[in-house]
Specification:
Elements lengths: L5 H13 L2 H14 L4 H17 L6 H6 L22 H15 L1 H9 L8 H22 L1 H11 L3 H13 L1 H8 L11 H15 L3 H12 L9 H8 L4 H4 L5 H16 L8 H24 L7 H21 L2 H8 L4 E2 L5 E2 L6 H17 L9 H28 L2 H20 L3 H16 L1
Antiparallel strand pairs: 1-2
Helix pairs in contact: 1-3, 2-3, 5-6, 7-8, 7-9, 10-12, 11-12, 11-13, 15-16, 15-17, 16-19, 18-19, 19-20, 19-21, 20-21, 20-22, 21-22
Length: 453
């Protein structure tokens, strides 16, 4: 379009804008297909691309997201998502972008903001490499100048140096990593042999030129696995071993460390006892995920007890078991507060209890739910005896309370009967939460019969 006058160019752009999108798409596709064999079509294809670009708005504020796109899969908040899927906060990205815009790469940032090309255009790879180079130069300088390192750590925090190193690798190798990850599904339910071999090939091809970038192919693949511990399937192929004797001492150790990091994340989240049924359900999902990671690691790879990974893993198992047992130990106290437990006087007469506060009932319900669900993983988590002892005692208390409440329903009148019936309903609710479905159903039927007598 260089030979066109400004007036001709404006008219052509106006004509292009007036066309429906489907017509523009047809023209683009037709000329692109014919371009390799027809110079006129090649010229038209170039013109249509320029017209499309002229119609688009500059990237503006979107330039930040486009340039830092390689970091996007690893953006999150610490403590909210597993560490293998978290490396940068949104604040980190804002600080990086601001640092480049004010000091490190002002020209690149301004040019990127004015760029009208879509995010998929290769020009953005060039912007990303420029960003990576600018960051690398700044970090290299900070390594040599103490006051610059002090300023860097003040800006980004104590882990800022390591975080920026990861950003540099991802930005400098953005095109190669993007090409590799395009061959890996966004979500992987099962890391089968074919896909494992594909990732091995991608890793080895990239490893020849850049070992750090190749490692990120494995870490990013792990982030797409429904069962992240399955990443050991490709680690075995690359390391040519099915145990950690040698692998844990190579660069592949970062992959095992990432799986262990996630395992520790779930173990630590078991410290807070649930206060409601919904919290208990969430807590159990955390416990279930911990057990899956813990057992999955040893099922997929030979983790030696006396090795570095083995010592860490068994330490995490002990931590999780302790945390879960502390939660289960709160069940008796929760029943004291949340179970409307009548008592028998010296004469044998049943003395009703007051209806507990709803918050106390909610807490008991949640803890009983967690107690009942823990049975599924009690052996794997080494809490079988504790779980059974507390569960048996809780079930016995609820059954005895239920029997006395049935008697009260049968022998009481007016408000006393209503209170007894409410207490019976609460007891049934707690028994259901604990997984005592048959006992709860029987108690409910007995209560109905007692009320009808």
């Amino acid at each position: 379009m260089a030979k066109l006058s400004p007036s001709q160019r404006a008219k052509l752009e106006a004509l292009w804008r007036s066309m429906p999108e489907h017509m523009r798409a047809t023209l683009r596709a037709t000329t692109k297909a014919a371009a390799p064999s027809d110079p006129a079509s090649a010229l038209l294809s170039t013109i249509f691309a320029e017209l499309d670009e002229a119609m688009r708005k500059p990237a503006g504020d979107l330039a930040k997201a486009y340039v830092l796109a390689p970091l996007r899969p690893l953006v999150g908040e610490s403590g909210i998502i597993p560490p293998s899927r978290f490396r940068f906060t949104t604040e980190d990205l804002s600080k990086i972008w601001g640092w480049m815009g004010r000091h490190l790469a002002k020209d690149m940032v301004e040019t990127a903001k004015k760029c009208k090309r879509p995010e998929s255009d290769p020009i953005w790879f060039e912007f990303r490499r420029q960003a990576g180079a600018a960051l690398a130069e700044a970090v290299h300088k900070a390594d040599r100048v103490p006051k610059d390192m002090t300023a860097l750590l003040k800006r980004f925090g104590g882990e800022g140096r390591a975080m920026l190193s990861d950003a540099i690798v991802l930005l400098n190798n953005c095109e190669e990593i993007a090409g590799a990850m395009a061959e890996v599904p966004e979500k992987i339910e099962d890391f089968d042999d074919d896909l494992s071999l594909t990732v091995k090939r991608l890793h080895e091809t990239m490893h020849e030129s850049n070992a750090e970038a190749a490692l990120w192919v494995l870490l990013l693949t792990m982030g797409r696995l429904e069962s992240p511990w399955q990443i050991f399937r490709v680690v075995k192929r690359i390391g040519r071993r099915d145990d950690d004797l040698v692998v844990s001492k190579t660069e592949l150790a970062a992959v095992g460390d990432a799986v262990l990091g996630d395992t520790g994340y779930f173990a630590a989240r078991l410290k807070q006892p649930p206060q409601t049924l919904e919290e208990a359900k969430a807590c159990y999902l955390v416990f279930d995920r911990f057990v899956a990671f813990s057992t999955g690691m040893t099922a997929e790879f030979g983790i030696r007890k006396d090795g570095r990974w083995g010592r860490s893993l068994f330490g995490l198992r002990a931590e999780a078991s302790t945390n879960v047992e502390k939660i289960l130990a709160k069940v008796p106290l929760a029943l004291d507060a949340g179970l409307p437990e009548p008592r028998r006087g010296r004469s044998g007469r049943v003395i009703p209890a007051q209806i507990p506060p709803e918050a106390a009932i909610d807490k008991a319900e949640g803890l009983l739910y967690f107690l009942g669900k823990c049975r599924e993983h009690a052996t794997a988590a080494a809490i079988a005896s504790t779980q059974k002892r507390i569960a048996d005692a809780a079930e016995k208390r609820m059954q005895e309370a239920g029997e006395m409440l049935v008697d009260l329903v049968a022998t009481s009148e007016g408000q006393n009967r209503t209170t007894a019936q409410d207490g019976l309903d609460i007891t049934v609710r707690l028994m259901l939460a604990a997984g005592c479905d048959e006992a709860a159903s029987l108690l409910r039927r007995r209560g109905v019969a007692a009320a009808a007598a």
